[in-house]
Amino acid sequence: MSVDIATVKRVARLARIAVSEEEANRMTGELNGILGFVEQLSEVDVAGVEPMTSVTPMAMKKREDAVTDGDKADDIVANAPASDRNFFLVPKVVE
Predict the structure, then answer these.
(1) Which of 33, 35, 41, 93 is the most exposed place for a label (fewest CB within 10 A)?
(2) Which of 1.10.20, 1.10.150, 1.20.1530, 1.10.287 is the CATH number of 5-42?
């Protein structure tokens, strides 16, 4: 895929960035270089390569899935103007 000056100007307009003719010419070359590099990356065979989160091996930090702070429903609705069985009551806004 290649980018022309019209595409650069259109993207700049959509991004609300003022781009002069000289800048558009320079950006066309830069964007085509970037897209060429991305096309090279698509040619790399990554079959069998595990996804990584870091370049160094590390285990994911996991916490125990346990409830540590519960049974506070009464405290949560204590300051509510209106509540019923630990649910907030709000005025009806849709008929």
Answers:
(1) 93
(2) 1.10.20
